């Protein structure tokens, strides 16, 4: 165990200054549920941990205007206990309620899940499906990044050494929209997605107006499968078209074989899970209820 | 349809006053309040901290070990390597201690396993160790030990290791075949064969024959508390060990032999244990810490990480098992043939013989042959795990038995009843059973409302399997001391894993006719009680309980003699029952146990009793399991919907703890069946060495497991006890596989039956490679 400096800034500006001064040796931490494990096993070895979960701005949840802006350090349990989120963004509840167990959800944040940039991250496909953007502050100012552009490789993201994720903005989804996230795991809890699928649909009577599908655990970064929208937009909501989406997801996936599943099995699951998740998203779009688990 | 659900049934044959009741366990309050002290809770002033330096390679030659940088670390107090262990002189002390763990291993191999010299033979194998003032310093200093390796090709799978061109782990392993040395060098250490009747003729009589080959993955016991210990090599050359283990005497003896010191120089004080399941019979860190302690002149404490524990202590073998069985069209099994090859880990001595004994044991098969192979692979040395060998073997045979029943269109329980082993049935090894309770177990399940309830829903199906395990006897000692207030101190040497302080006290209480709460049990150190083999082999309630009965009888006889002395009558005229002592017919000579105890100190001093046994009448254990599953045909995922296990306990001393064993074994068997496995990298390292990726079932993966305790008294125990700890793990994999054959129509030949392997099996059956 090496010595690590620890700082607990109270403002975004202070945090950005610390990150800027320390450069690549610093790492921002919110709940720490990924970072502390990585420190223990030596996967990340920062010299300086900047604990951002005490910054008030990073703990705000703003649900005005039909969308939601989540402070980057807002933990999962706040999200799935927020009535406005439960009502408008049940897919976010799907994700927030399966990241780790109950105790972990007291600490783990969606912002952390995004910055950790695991290919298997349970929140990222949902954020991509919902068309969310990441709001970033750095030494030279602020910028916004579409979630599908945020991750650049396993554990890698677009943030510069001086930059901090401050919040995530999810736009209002509009009428006749529904979204869903589900992952496939061999157990029923406490597991890493073999495949995860986030999907949102907007329907126009009996047809698809738009479809956004994103896959976890089948590529170096969460995969946004835009081809599904290309195929389905304007088409009727039918089992055949849903099956087509499954086929497209399967073809788009670039999985590896590892201890959590073979590449063939993962491709197969992309098909199965995309069909199931799309069906649930359609149910939600039509006002029906689908339980989080 | 509604049926009466009775979650836990006890089918009792004989009632007693204490035995069969459910008192609160003596250790319960400390455990639920967090007061109980486990191994890592142990503190001693002046302790320093140890850390093992481990090999990153599964198989490599050690070119050099440079400890100079570690020694120069300001906090480091001692550094040792394998060269600090005594050299093993073959022929002098090369044979394994007389009394050590469940699995015999050569002392030379044991020393090498504990700290390697010349080469490493499994991933994360210790090659050196450091002790430093703090645990963090020890961790840092361990990284400063520079070890140069020449990497060798590794082999981690049993069938691959048996190939002629496989990498060879040891140049001195020569295959023994049927008890004779063959001169064949390689990874196969032993080949044995058991045979009964004429298998060839038996198969000629068969109308239906089923033959399948099975492969099962290496699994771990998954106890919650990783290995840890504190060792102090004192300046009087006594070596004190504080750890949590199953066998204090086993580890005392093995540690003394590894260190080359007299046996009783070592004293082991067992702490509370957070699970063992067979994995805590062998020393791992203890001898190393002893060396560090001697060098540093201070007690040394160490605890293993989960990764160290999973990859480098003692898991349970992966295996290959081929089973062929034949039956006549009227449902009689007439022939069996089995071939078992078990991973021994990096040194010879797997549990394949036990597997070979179990494979056909539940059935009366006149003609059978069993071949077993003990094979070394580049994994850590396998240890015992709850009915070691039975689960591998009976997953195979119970699948084949089920398929025979399917082909003959006979109900699976009925088919087993038609062929069930009974008193007098001969096993493949030639021995025959005393009174056993398999038929009663099968009948209890056939009559159970679970078996009679309808199976409803798509892809929902029911499976059944049963299993045999031999159980162990071995040595136990118990001392009793009567206190003047009438309570009785009980000292024993069996670490309490599953409520054994309660079940042992209850047997003494029953003999003495006093409440079990009046017995005060203590598990004591190895200086303070006679040799007691470890807690394992389902032996503790049976054998240590037997010793408690003997000790209580000893006390009882002395109480009678003391009363006779007080009353001035002949001892023969004094009786003691239900805790009351009386003489003659009249009511005047009468004392309670407490009243007599109060007289002890003035009439000759305290009464103490002793019991020391090595009982031979071990009662075999049988269990059967019904499971209902749902299998997802698109993902291959299996959900257990309902499970009911019945087991012959002989006599359940404390039914709650028997039920706990039945449920715990079933839970572990379900984990083994569905998801648990050592996933090995191409380089021979365990890739999933954490409880995140080594997937044991969580509470959400299991239903409440219903139990039926069947009581067919074991004639070899005064109260009819049979060990109950182990056999319950063996049925689940086969029961789930048998249910899968009815749900998705696939016969699984691999463990684990995780979603991925279930889908692959379905694709193979459909002739497609990836479901497209």
What this model shows, in words?
The complex is a heterodimer of chains A (293) and B (772). Chain A has 11 helices and 14 strands. With 293 residues, chain A is of the alpha+beta class. A 5-stranded antiparallel sheet of chain A has the order 4-5-10-6-7. Chain A has a domain at 177-285: Enolase-like, domain 1. The N and C termini of chain A lie far apart (38 Å). In chain A, strand 4 and strand 5 form a beta hairpin. In chain A, helix 9 (226-232) runs antiparallel to helix 10 and helix 10 (239-252) runs antiparallel to helix 11 (263-285). Chain B has 3 domains: 1-14 and 434-471 and 619-772, Aldehyde Oxidoreductase, domain 4 (2-Layer Sandwich); 40-154 and 221-312, Aldehyde Oxidoreductase, domain 3 (Alpha-Beta Complex); 476-613, Aldehyde Oxidoreductase, domain 4, CATH 3.30.365.10. Chain B is globular. Chain B starts with 7 loop residues before the first strand and ends in a 6-residue tail after the last helix. Classes of the chains: A alpha+beta (293), B alpha/beta (772). The A-B interface holds A 1-2, 184, 186-192, 194, 250, 258-262, 264-265, 267-269, 272 and B 136, 139-140, 634-635, 637, 639, 674-675, 679, 687-688, 692-693, 695, 697-698, 700-701, 754-756, 759-760, 769-772.
């Amino acid at each position: 165990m090496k010595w690590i400096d620890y700082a607990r800034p109270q403002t975004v500006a202070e945090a950005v200054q610390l990150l800027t001064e320390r450069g690549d040796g610093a790492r921002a931490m919110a709940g720490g549920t990924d970072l502390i494990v990585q420190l223990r096993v030596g996967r990340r070895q920062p010299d300086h941990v900047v604990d951002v979960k005490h910054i008030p701005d990073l703990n705000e949840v703003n649900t005005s205007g039909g969308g939601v802006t989540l402070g980057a350090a807002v933990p999962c349990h706040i999200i799935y206990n927020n009535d406005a989120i439960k009502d408008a963004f049940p897919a976010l509840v799907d994700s927030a309620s399966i990241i780790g167990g109950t105790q972990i959800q007291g600490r783990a944040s969606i912002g952390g899940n995004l910055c950790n940039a695991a290919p298997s991250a349970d929140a990222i496909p949902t954020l991509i499906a919902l068309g969310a953007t990441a709001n970033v502050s750095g030494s030279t100012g602020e910028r916004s990044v579409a979630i599908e552009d945020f991750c650049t490789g396993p554990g890698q993201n677009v943030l510069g050494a001086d930059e901090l994720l401050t919040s995530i903005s999810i736009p209002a989804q509009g009428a006749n929209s529904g979204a869903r996230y589900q992952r496939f795991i061999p157990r029923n809890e406490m597991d890493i997605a073999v495949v995860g699928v986030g999907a949102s649909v907007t329907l126009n009577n009996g047809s698809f107006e738009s479809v956004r599908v994103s896959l976890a655990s089948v590529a170096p970064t969460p995969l946004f499968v835009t081809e599904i929208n290309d195929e389905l937009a304007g088409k009727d909501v039918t089992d055949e078209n849903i099956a087509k989406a499954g086929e497209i997801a399967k073809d788009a996936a670039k999985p590896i074989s590892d201890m959590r599943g073979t590449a063939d099995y993962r491709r197969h699951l992309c098909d199965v899970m995309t069909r199931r998740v799309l069906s649930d998203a359609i149910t939600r779009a039509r006002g029906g209820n689908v339980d989080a688990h | 349809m509604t049926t009466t659900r009775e979650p836990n049934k006890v089918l009792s044959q004989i009632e007693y006053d204490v035995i069969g009741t459910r008192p609160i366990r003596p250790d319960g309050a400390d455990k639920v309040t967090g007061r109980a002290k486990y191994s890592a809770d142990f503190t001693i002033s002046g302790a320093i901290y140890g850390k093992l330096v481990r090999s990153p390679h599964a198989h490599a030659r050690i070119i050099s070990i440079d400890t100079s940088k570690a020694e120069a670390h300001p906090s480091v107090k001692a550094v040792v390597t394998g060269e600090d262990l005594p050299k093993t002189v073959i022929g002098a002390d090369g044979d394994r201690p007389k009394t050590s763990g469940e699995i015999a291993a050569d002392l030379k191999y044991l020393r090498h396993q504990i700290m390697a010299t010349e080469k490493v033979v499994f991933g994360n194998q210790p090659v050196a160790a450091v002790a430093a003032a703090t645990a963090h310093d020890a961790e840092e200093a361990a990284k400063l030990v520079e070890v140069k390796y020449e990497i060798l090709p590794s082999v981690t799978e049993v069938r691959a290791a048996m190939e002629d061109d496989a990498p060879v782990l040891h140049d001195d392993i020569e295959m023994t075949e049927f008890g004779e040395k063959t001169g064949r060098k390689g990874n196969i250490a032993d080949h044995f064969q058991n045979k009964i009747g004429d298998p060839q003729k038996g198969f000629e009589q068969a109308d239906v024959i089923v033959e399948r080959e099975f492969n099962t993955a290496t699994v771990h016991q998954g106890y919650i508390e990783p290995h840890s210990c504190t060792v102090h090599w004192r300046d009087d050359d006594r070596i004190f060990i504080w750890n949590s283990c199953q066998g204090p005497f086993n580890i005392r003896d093995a540690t003394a032999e590894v260190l080359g010191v007299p046996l009783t120089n070592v004293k082991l004080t067992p702490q509370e244990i957070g699970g063992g399941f067979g994995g805590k019979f062998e020393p791992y860190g203890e001898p190393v810490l002893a060396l560090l302690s001697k060098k540093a002149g201070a007690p040394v404490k160490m605890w293993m990480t989960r990764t160290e524990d999973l990859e480098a202590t003692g898991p349970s073998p992966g295996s290959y098992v081929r089973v062929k069985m034949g039956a006549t069209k009227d449902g009689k099994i007439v022939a069996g043939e089995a071939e078992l090859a078990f991973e021994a880990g990096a040194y010879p001595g797997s549990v394949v013989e036990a597997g070979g004994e179990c494979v056909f044991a539940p059935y009366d098969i006149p003609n059978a042959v069993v071949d077993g192979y003990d094979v070394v692979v580049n994994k850590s040395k396998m240890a015992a795990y709850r009915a070691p060998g039975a689960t591998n073997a009976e997953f195979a045979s119970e699948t084949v038995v089920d398929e025979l029943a399917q082909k003959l269109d006979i109900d699976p329980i009925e088919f087993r009843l038609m062929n069930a082993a009974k008193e007098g049935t001969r096993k493949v090894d030639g021995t025959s059973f005393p009174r056993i309770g398999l038929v009663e177990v099968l009948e209890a399940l056939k009559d159970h409302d679970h078996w009679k309830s309808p199976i409803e829903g798509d892809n929902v199906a029911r499976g059944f399997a049963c299993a045999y395990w031999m159980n162990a006897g071995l040595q136990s000692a118990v001392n009793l001391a009567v206190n003047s207030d009438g309570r009785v101190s009980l000292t024993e040497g069996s670490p309490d894993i599953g409520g054994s302080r309660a079940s042992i006290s209850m047997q003494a209480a029953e003999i003495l006719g006093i409440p079990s709460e009046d017995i005060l049990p203590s598990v004591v150190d190895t200086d303070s009680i006679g040799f007691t083999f470890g807690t394992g082999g389902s032996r503790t309630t049976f054998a240590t309980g037997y010793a408690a009965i003997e000790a209580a009888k000893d006390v009882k006889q002395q109480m009678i003699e003391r009363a006779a002395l007080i009353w001035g009558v002949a001892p023969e005229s004094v009786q003691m029952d239900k805790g009351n002592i009386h003489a003659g017919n009249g009511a005047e000579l009468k004392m309670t146990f407490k009243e007599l105890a109060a007289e002890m100190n003035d009439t000759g001093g305290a009464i103490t009793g002793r019991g020391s046994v090595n009982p031979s009448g071990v009662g075999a254990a049988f269990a059967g399991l019904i499971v209902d599953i749902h299998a997802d045909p698109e993902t291959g995922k299996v959900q257990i919907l309902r499970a009911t296990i019945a087991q012959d306990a002989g006599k359940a001393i404390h039914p709650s703890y028997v039920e706990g064993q039945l449920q715990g074994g079933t839970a572990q068997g379900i984990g083994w069946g569905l998801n648990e496995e050592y996933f090995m990298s191409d380089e021979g390292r365990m890739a999933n060495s954490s409880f995140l990726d080594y997937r044991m079932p969580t509470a959400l993966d299991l239903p409440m497991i219903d139990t039926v305790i069947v009581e067919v008294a074991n004639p070899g125990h005064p109260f009819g006890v049979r060990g109950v700890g182990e056999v319950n793990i063996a049925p689940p994999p086969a029961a789930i596989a048998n249910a899968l054959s009815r749900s998705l129509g696939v016969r699984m030949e691999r463990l684990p039956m995780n979603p991925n392997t279930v889908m692959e099996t379905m694709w193979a059956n459909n002739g497609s490679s990836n479901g497209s």
